[in-house]
Amino acid sequence: METLEFQSEARQLLQLMIHSVYSNKDTFLRELVSNASDALDKLRLEAFRDKDLDADTADPRITIEVDRAERTLTVRDNGIGMTRDDVVALIGTIAKSGTAEFLRALKERDGSSSDELIGQFGIGFYSTFMVADRVTLVTKHPRSAEGVRWESDGGGTYTIEPVADAQQGTAVTLRLKPADDDDHLPDYTDPARLRQIVKRYADFITWPITLAGEDGAEPEVVNSRKALWARPQSEVTEEEYAEFYRHVSHDWNKPLETISLKAEGTFEYQALLFIPSQAPLDLFMRERKRGVQLYVKRVFIMDDCEELMPEYLRFVKGVVDAQDLSLNVSREILQQDRQIQLMRRRLVKKVLATFKTMMSDRPENYAVLWREFGAVLKEGLLSDPDNRDAILAVCSFASTRDAEATTTLADYVERMRDGQEEIYYMTGDSRAAVENSPHLEALLAKGYEVLILTDPVDEMWVGAVPEFQGKRFQSVAKGEVDLGSDEDRSQAEQDFADLTSWLTETLSEQVKEVRLSSRLTTSPACVVGDSHDLTPTLEKMYRAMGQELPRVKRILELNPAHPLVEGLRAALADGRDRAELAPVAELLHGSALLAEGGDLPDPARFARVLADHLQRGL
Ligand SMILES: Nc1ncnc2c1ncn2[C@@H]1O[C@H](COP(=O)(O)OP(=O)(O)OP(=O)(O)O)[C@@H](O)[C@H]1O
């Protein structure tokens, strides 16, 4: 027998379970049954793929046994089982991405609000330690010659030893803590209670779940085993859908939205999809385990079938059951299958249509959807041009019109002022940075509304999406924004020609042009990009990804009505020493960068020039 240590994160999670304040302890049984069901799915699939596998698939089942005298509860399956290495890797460590963040977040909270976090993370097998003071797992994989016995009391270590005569599959035995009403700990040796929990949490599991009879009573199958997606929607309760969602997603929360779809005709399939109510911690990490599962004629084929859902809908969970695919479909086949492509197109349309309905009929749910997944959904504006309009239709954006409420593009267009041809937006790191940026001054003063885009992905899609309802997207920090009359403009341009050409020359290292602006009312200057230039944020993003880029020179725009700009013009006209005025030019450019929340190319130099200048003014 060997004694091994839990990995430190696993140890922390176990401690959390042992001292759990999680009020619904019944969920441990759901986790065990769910794992057993997965193990049976995997065995069937493996046996199908490998005809030589030495496994018994004749009577797949999950059995729950209790021993009231010993106060033990055993959940047994004759599924795929685990090898010794599996046990050490899967039970002794937590490979799940986001574990570290989860533990950190948990530490920052007090006990009372940890339920929700635990729910979001899902602690699987370890949840058994909420109800047991010792857990024993005996398992055998068909490819291993002998079985393994794993045991732990949830402290820092576990033991592991070979078992010569183990049966195929896995048996998890819990030595139950005494029932304790104060601790929300019911008596899990009570068959009535167990029956009720299985009915409630696992009725849809397609494998039979048998409650072994005590005192000579007949064993009984307690679940109805009906595939939920095959039942008419009207017959399924919301609670049943929610349980099924938890089974496929391993998320303990309720789904935000349930979508059911039946396609009939030449290519028949059923889909039952869910929108989670909370983004997982690993939403932005590429490696993910669970998305949409593929079944063929009720037989589980694979988890996270990427061919069915595009990357930007990676948060959608659920099941698609196709009637006309072969049971031995592989990823390679799926990628080329035209039927699968049609299916995917239809599913995406259905999901996007659901978002649209949520927007109009269930605005609170839509708000949650957007808050949790909006940034991901917007990736589709780049990656899925075919559905661009449908995605734009369900987007909402912060805007200068309201500090809290977001707006749809349709509503924005509706409110556009007479003569306004474009949808104005500004990208930036935060709402405050955008709102305080000089670029917005004149537009706001004249009553135009500007969309405030602060997600990193916004920088990318606005460059790729040409228009919405025939209105182009126009960055207020790019290209020409023309708000004044043409006559005023050409007069001013003449008046300031000497100044702009002198500044263009003096600042030629930093900017490609200096010109007059109609964007500004109170600031002296701002920096803008050409229509097709990268924005500074995008430039930074590409650099962070390791791309070599030439430095993008931008354009300095001046406010001719500002006393500083006017003063500079007059000084130049009076023939003041240009070398003496050069630091002013530099400060003007530097402060325009600071005002938009940008970075100075050489902050130390800026500070020095500023100090010199201030000193001279004393
Ligand atoms: N009865 C079982 N038969 C075979 N393998 C199992 C069994 N129970 C657990 N496992 C293996 O151990 C792994 C870890 O299980 P655990 O319940 O902790 O997490 P999970 O099911 O992967 O995810 P989650 O914590 O989100 O539920 C499983 O993914 C599976 O590979």
Automatic annotation (TrEMBL):
ATP binds at residues 31, 35, 77, 82, 96-98, 120-125, 170, 331. Residues 1-331 are annotated as: A. Keywords: ATP-binding, Chaperone, Cytoplasm, Nucleotide-binding, Stress response. Transmembrane segments: none annotated. Its main location: cytoplasm. One of its GO terms (molecular function) is ATP hydrolysis activity. It holds the Pfam family HATPase_c_3. Homodimer. Belongs to the heat shock protein 90 family. NCBIfam families: PRK05218.1. This is Chaperone protein HtpG. The gene is htpG.
